[in-house]
From TrEMBL:
Transmembrane segments: none annotated. Pfam families: zf-CDGSH. It comes from Patiriisocius hiemis. This is CDGSH iron-sulfur domain-containing protein. The keyword Metal-binding applies. Residues 15-60 form the Iron-binding zinc finger CDGSH type domain.
Length: 60
């Protein structure tokens, strides 16, 4: 049976995070993995308290 693949889109937001839309597997620095099925915001500024995810700290 052929598995249908879902498109994943990466959107660069001006003065904001990288938005990844679609299914994503995240591999953390400790080797643990996490599955995301919807939109996920990744920090680009380094101010987040929730690495690698954006927590809106760039707005402060």
């Amino acid at each position: 049976m052929k598995k249908e693949t879902e498109n994943t889109k990466v959107e660069v937001l001006e003065n904001g995070p990288l938005m990844v839309h679609g299914s994503t597997t995240i591999v953390h620095t400790d080797g643990s993995t996490e599955e995301k099925q919807r939109a996920t915001a990744f920090c680009r500024c380094g101010k987040t308290g929730n690495i690698p995810f954006c927590d809106g700290s760039h707005n402060s």
